[in-house]
Amino acid sequence: MISIHSEPQPTDLGDVRVANRAVVLRHVRLHAPCSRADIAAHTGLNKATVSSLVAELIDQRLIRETGLTENRVGRPATMLVLDGEPYAALGLQIGADELVAVAIDLAGNRLLTWRRAFAAGTASPTETLRALAALARRAIGRVGAQGRTVLGLTVGVPGLVDSAGTVPVATALGWREVPVAAELRAALREPAFTVGVDTVANLAAIAEQRHGAHAGTADLVHLTGGIAVGAGIIADGRLLRGGRGFAGEIGHLCLDPTGPQCFCGGRGCLSALVGLPAVVRRLLPDVEADGPVTDYLPELQRIVALARQDDPAVLSGLAETGRHLGQGVAVLVDLLNPEAVVVGDHLATLAPWLLPAARSGLATRAHAPGAGGCRLDASILDTAAALGGATAALAAVEAGRLPGR
């Protein structure tokens, strides 16, 4: 599935109406309120083409006239903004102990954010997909009750995802060869909209590049937390997928061959050192006295409370975790030279105590002076992967294809 597009280029030759429509939509999204004359002047499309495209987009209720006018000499111009009121896009996310659903409109405004407690790490693929489908049906029903049509749905999975929407392996979930897209389409009775699947890291990176504090950054990495650590990579404005779509699996980079065992079978992987289960286990040694943890939120809140109370053992453990995080980020910085690395999920929650040590470790270990100018920050986005999934679900319309075609 297409997730991030380079800027559409205008042309008036051949069968190019779809491409030109994408140019107009992108300009309105980035520069609204704007006039038809603005669009023509900044995109290179001629005024007649712009007028025709704008009329079509207004008819489809993808953009609308606001009635505002420019302050300029001559006849006032009617201003345009995104509309999209009849539409919604959905994103779903499989987390460490929850399923998440997010719906947005065409402008990226959230219509709903739902969380459902769910122990995905101990559930079977069938159970997880059944719960995902139930959550999706509820979200579809809610936006449908608002008079909105769903344009698309994208699911974020903490594992590898191929081009067909199958998960060949998700070690943290114990999954192998799970046809997520096909199963979800069947559970939703073959809906008219597209059902896509991607990694939580890729989708979080899409959300970060569109909605986060570093929105618009051309070279960006989002490092996910949760049960697995993954890297969503935006390079030169595009999502970097690799030859078969499996790029970004930094969670199984070995940092310490004598370190703790990872769920992948190796030792000292980044996930085994800074992943949520590893952090909870290290900082709260009594946590599994009554059995495996299936709800991490109370334990995470407990760690935060102890850190705020300056508990020496917890502060020491967080600093150690931060040093491992900095070591992993340094590898990304040396390989990719991003402008920013943004950490999400529990890494963002614990950022006040993790990032000082992580930044120090990054500065020490990165080969380029000043870590190549890279900033290491915590994400400001909540449920980034689900938000990115909803954003990715808008891809077809943003590429210039009209809804329902």
TrEMBL record:
Domain HTH marR-type: 23-65
TM stretches of this protein: none
Domain of life according to the entry: Bacteria
GO molecular function, one term: DNA-binding transcription factor activity
Entry similarity comment: Belongs to the ROK (NagC/XylR) family.
Protein's name according to its UniProt entry: ROK family transcriptional regulator
Species, as recorded: Micromonospora maris
